[in-house]
Amino acid sequence: MAREHKDYEDIPGTFVFDQERSRQGYGINMFCMSLMKEDNRKAFKANEAEYLKSFKLTPEQTDAVLRRDYNRMLELGGNIYFTAKLGATDGHSFQHLAAVMTGSTQEDYAKMMLGGGRSIEGNRSKSGKNKSGKSKSGKAAAAKPARAAKRGKAAKGKSKTRSKARSKRG
To answer: Which of 3, 86, 164, 168 is deepest in the core (most CB within 10 A)?
Structure first.
């Protein structure tokens, strides 16, 4: 059954977890939630394909889980917070998963996020709508890096203050 097109599906690299995806991904999300229990993690790691048979997964969902294709899992209805449990079962941090999903290293991903996130340029839409780098008021969308730099300075100042407070406590 084809998904009804929504305007937000035009955002590149984004799978919005809406009502339709929630229903579609029920099985994959229940599988991921099962990994909260140690016995289930052991059973899954012992025979992944067999363990997955106890959940109502489509062949595409099963394949995505076995290949650890997190972007595909999200596209097929997985919730990012549930699928992260699979990553944790494999011993990976959320930062590792995000880096894998964006096609970068953990270091490059962290640097990008600390620098204010992914540039909006080239990431506005799949269809090519909204190509302009200007807002409705005509101002360029270049303020984001400046805001990120200010946040970085503010965060550094706070951490120094916290460090001083800790040293006073002993």
So the answer is: 86
